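Hi P.,

Sorry for the delay on this. The queue was packed all week, but I finally got your sequence through. Input first:
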Amino acid sequence: MGRRTDGGILRGSGRRVIRRGASRRSGALAIAALLALVGSVALAPANAAETRAGFDPADYPTWAQVQQAQADEKAASAMVDQLNAQIAALQVQLEETQRVAKEKGEKYAAAQEAYDQAAFTAQQLQDQADAAQAEADQAKRDSARSLAELGRSGNSDLTATLLSQSGSADSLLYRLGAAGRVTERSSDVFARAVQLQKSAQALTDQADAAAAILEDLEAKAQAAFEEAKAAADAVAADLAAQQSAMDEMQAQLAVLTQKRQATEADFQAGQRAAYEAGVVSLDGWAKPAAGCITDNFGMRYHPIYGVWKLHSGVDIGAGYDQPIYAAHSGVVIYAGWFSDLGYYVKIDHGGGMVSGYGHIREGGLRVSTGQWVDAGQVIAKVGSTGGSTGPHLHYMMYSNGNLIDPVPYMADHGVRIGC
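Then the structure:
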């Protein structure tokens, strides 16, 4: 938790670690996590030791709460990105299953059309077989009558045999013909009857076989189509569920974004109400002291020593005993006397960035070596110790061990040094 020393504004620790869960498998889990984030931005009061008259820090959020609101929004945005990726993957899968279902549907339609055509043909064959059977039966009856007449003229036993055993009529006809006991007309009529019977049976067999094969093909095509359709329907349902989750997630993200924006605005309003300097930007940097720039970074003619030498920082004309604020959160790596800079504080902010604060008044140190400080926390009081011609803050910055001009760097991070 942030803390305040000597009039500083309560800030978040800066050491907060935002832990994100593993990738969600469903929109429902993502929504549940997001709902836990919504409403997590609460406005807790600061605990100021020094504030302006009429200013109540409890009316404004702390820097830690700003960081939490930013983290909540970022986590929700990550969930939205994850859902978008899941939806994109499902859409690809849906397109593939729909393509397969369409192919199966084409095959099903072709099989159905072939079946319908074959069924029609088979019915025609059956009709032809029925007609042939009827004609064969009539031919048998005609032959039987002819043989009966023949029997009455000389062989009554033969007539009885033909009427009772019509299935063996062809063999009897052959024997009678060979013996010359039937006329040529009777032989032709019965032979036609036998041929018609065979044709009728052949047509019936063809029709039955065709129908059985086509029914099997139709069943397989139908099964394949139903399988593909079920897969497509399942993916479509999953996609609809994910899209519904995305819609809700987007709505919740909008709420978090609004909360983050409101928290940031309220925080900065509170900072402006409390102090002109020490206001923490949305990048987490703060103006180290109030006042105009009285000397810039770079080579200059030293006002005391009368030589040209590097001016290692920027001088801010703050009044004596005015607060000096930590420009960014970090660890104090030095706090004490530092020759020409008088009493001096040096802070390591991590990432190769280090800041320094010189000419602090006697007894003005408010931090010690090894101490963690937050952005905007009061670390010292303005003085004129060391090689100084009057009260001011000598503010300096290092990047990866090299001195840099603090003014453009701070400007890039939302802080304007000077009047």
